[in-house]
Amino acid sequence: MKLRCLDCAHTFPPTLRYACAACGGILEVVGESGLEPPPGLPAGMWRHAARLGVTDPAAIVSLGEGETPLLRAPRIERALPDFEGEIWLKDETRNPSGSFKDRAISAGISKAIELGARGVVCASSGNAGASVAAYAARAGMGAIIIVPAHTPDGKVTQIAAHGAVLLKVPGHYSRSYDLAAALAERHGYANLTTTFINPWAVDGLKLVGPEIRAQLGGRVPDMVLIPTGSGPLVEGVARGFAGAARPPRLVAVQAEGCAPIVRAFEEGAEAVTAWGMPDTIASGISDPLIGYERDGTRTLRLVRRSGGTAVAVSDDALRAAMRLLARGEGLYAEPTGASPIAALPRLLAEGLVPRGAVVVCLITGHGFKDGRAYQEMPARIHAVPAPDDLAAVARLCDAALAEKE
Ligand SMILES: *Cc1c(COP(=O)(O)O)cnc(C)c1O
Ligand SMILES: [Zn+2]
């Protein structure tokens, strides 16, 4: 096992290293541990420990991440008039801290412990921080989490609950990113920021693909729709299907209020440039990439290489998608988690979804983390001042049930 630079192919021994010493490029993990899955771990992705990067079983920190359900979405299929095919939801809200970030953090913190780290630092738009806080608590190690000041309450509460030191920084996410790198160096902590900075964490995302394939009975989907910030999850999905005869087309979904990768894709640009101040309800993908634009460029290349596309969705489309997921399919997602559903009508309208396509949508984050948008939607909530008057309450229910949605 080693680390290799994506740009100049320099290789380095498997250590905690966040960029190529020769050219500053992004590093990736090459090789696998071959580790026998250690007994006593909770069910989940470490069943495939052999494919991950940890060689010391005692270093593994797991809360049972990965191996999430794949659910068919019949009501969403019916809600899309021109759609013929299969829509599947990969329910990543079911990870221990409520987002797919747990896959990356479990892999990243375990390798950091194996390599002697005493603590961990993470800059986050919320979910990675919540994950790091939970896994650091599990490991009994110190954690410093840095988030933008406007991070949703649910995520802030979650991070604080696990006892992490939580720093709130004004402005966009990229400012938190710089501070995390500096603090990691100062304290000698591992940096688990989930951009492309930590190759061991990114490596942990590659099992999503094989899981989906197994859950589809060995079929490879035609398209995978991925909520995209800087893009490690896109990389994970791409790697997970590498070697398939016909790998899926990857669709990077961003919010109109923060869409640096979509903009570059639509302009036919070679490189991604940073966004200004994000303005969207999708906090999980509010990443303007300032200072690490190269991460976006990496993702742009992966999307193009797959024959896929990049689409931006409006906040209104996100709200409609959240509602459809919650009312139609029983899934409670944060705005970012619903973004693939919001992208479907656009992709259909542009003729990008072939007849009979098997489409997988990654539902990346839980509604518990950010329920504000739901609170503003029409709902069938009624005050019942006199619960003893059964006849009146029953009439109220009849009327409410009969209401047209
Ligand atoms: C972080 C996050 C993303 C974006 O993932 P990247 O790998 O950074 O592109 C998508 N959805 C949710 C819910 C997230 O927390
Ligand atoms: Zn290099």
Automatic annotation (TrEMBL):
Entry cofactors:
pyridoxal 5'-phosphate
Q: Name one Pfam family in it.
A: PALP
* Alphabetized InterPro entries for the sequence: Ser/Thr_Dehydratase, Ser/Thr_deHydtase_PyrdxlP-BS, Thr_synthase-like, TrpB-like_PALP, TrpB-like_PALP_sf
**Keywords linked to the UniProt accession:** Amino-acid biosynthesis, Lyase, Pyridoxal phosphate, Threonine biosynthesis
Known catalytic reactions: O-phospho-L-homoserine + H2O = L-threonine + phosphate
Q: Which GO terms describe its molecular function?
A: L-serine ammonia-lyase activity; pyridoxal phosphate binding; threonine deaminase activity; threonine synthase activity
- The protein's Enzyme Commission number: 4.2.3.1
- Modified residues annotated as N6-(pyridoxal phosphate)lysine in this record: K101
Q: Which GO terms describe its biological process?
A: isoleucine biosynthetic process; L-serine catabolic process; L-threonine catabolic process; threonine biosynthetic process
* Pathway where it operates: Amino-acid biosynthesis; L-threonine biosynthesis; L-threonine from L-aspartate: step 5/5
Q: Where is the Tryptophan synthase beta chain-like PALP domain?
A: 61-365
Could you tell me which CDD domains the record lists for this protein? Answer: Thr-synth_1 (cd01563)
Family label: Belongs to the threonine synthase family.
Name this polypeptide is given: Threonine synthase
